[in-house]
Amino acid sequence: MYEARKLSAAAAQIDEAAEGRLTSILRRGDMQGKSGTTLMLQSVAGVSAERILLVGLGAEGEFGVKQYREAISTAMRAVNTSGASDAELHLTALEVDGRDAQWRVQQAVTLAQESTYRFDAMKSRKDSNRQRLRSVTLALSGKADARKGERGLAHGGDDPIGHLVGSRSRQ
Fold it and tell me: In terms of pTM, does the model score above 0.85?
C-alpha cells in the first residue's frame, strides 16, 4: 500500500474480493502506507487467507530498489513472527524501475532467507515450540514474469533454513 492511501494492484484485487474492507481501513486511517509499516488483518471476509499483511510502500513516485527491498524485508519479518507456516507474497508483482521479475524474485528469495534465518546451534534452550515459516509463494503478474521468476529462484541462493520458495503466475 502506497502513501496517500493508494492500494497496489494486488491489494486492490484483495479489496474487491473483501468487498471494500481494505478501502474502509484506509478511510479510517488505520494504515497510512508509510514505508516500513505493516498492519496484520485477521479473518477478512471474502478472502481465503487466514491473515492479510498490509505493507507500507512509501510514496508511489519514489518507489524503487531501496523501497522494494525494505518492503520485502519488513513483510518477511512480520510473517515470520506471526506464527504462519505458509505465506503468499504479492510484493514480487510490483514494478520496480529498471528491474525485471528475475531480479525481484532473486531479491525476495535472498531477503526471505536473511529475514528468517536463526542461528541457535549454540543456544542451550532452543525455541522448539515456535512454528516456523516453511514455504513462501511468490506471486507474479503473468507467464513472461513467471519464466523470469523461475530464473530468479535459481539465482536466489541455497536455502539454509529449508523453507520452499515457489512462484505462481497471477492472472
Answer: no
